[in-house]
């Protein structure tokens, strides 16, 4: 039997590492860092955002996790994220997956999910 995407990403602990690495990369990426750097001085808020991201990806990848955060449109409303910014964020997520040795089939599945979310995030 084939493992779920959740299992292939390493379960909650694996997804947590991916989210941590992706957010750290976002903070270093000059194209999108201005969206993330303010959270360095708000560690409690950053922890909540990271946990929501972990829960969202865990639930959406087949984990038995409840996502209780806002929907993607509401969460990104007023941010006016550009298509280029979104692609930089996706690239950072791919870098995090590469760092953790995620196989290409799994990366492609994650990219498919990220692509399906773009309309709910871009230009909101």
List the helices and strands and how they pair.
Elements: H1 5-8, H2 11-28, H3 33-36, H4 43-60, H5 72-76, H6 83-99, H7 104-121
Helix pairs in contact: 2-4, 2-6, 6-7
Description:
This protein has helices spanning 5-8, 11-28, 33-36, 43-60, 72-76, 83-99, 104-121. The protein is mostly helical and 124 residues long. The chain has a single domain (5-121), classed as Globin-like (Orthogonal Bundle), CATH 1.10.490. Helix 2 crosses helix 4 (43-60), helix 2 (11-28) crosses helix 6 and helix 6 (83-99) runs antiparallel to helix 7 (104-121).
Tags for this model:
124 residues, 7 helices, mainly alpha
How would you name the CATH homologous superfamily?
Globins
Alpha-carbon Rg, integer: 14 Å
Helix content: 55-70%
Q: What form results from the Cα inertia axes?
A: globular
Low-confidence stretches: none
Sheet with the most strands, sense and barrel status: none
CATH C-level category? Mainly Alpha
In what range is the share of β-strand residues? under 5%
Secondary-structure content class: mainly alpha
Distance between the termini: 40 Å
CATH architectural label: Orthogonal Bundle
Number of helices: 7
Mean pLDDT: 96
Domain unit count: 1
Listing every helix as H and every strand as E from the N terminus to the C terminus, the arrangement reads HHHHHHH
Assembly category: single chain
According to DSSP, the number of beta strands is 0
Under CATH, the topology is which? Globin-like
């Amino acid at each position: 039997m084939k493992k779920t995407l959740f299992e292939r990403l390493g379960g909650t602990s694996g997804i947590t590492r991916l989210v941590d690495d992706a957010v750290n990369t976002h903070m270093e990426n000059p194209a999108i860092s201005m969206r993330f750097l303010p959270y360095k001085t708000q560690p409690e808020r950053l922890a909540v955002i990271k946990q929501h991201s972990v829960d969202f990806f865990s639930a959406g990848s087949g984990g038995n996790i409840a996502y209780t955060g806002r929907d993607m449109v509401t969460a990104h409303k007023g941010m006016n994220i550009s298509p280029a910014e979104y692609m930089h964020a996706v690239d950072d997520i791919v870098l995090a997956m590469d760092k953790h040795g995620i196989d290409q089939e799994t990366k492609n599945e994650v990219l498919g999910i990220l692509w399906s979310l773009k309309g709910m995030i871009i230009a909101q």
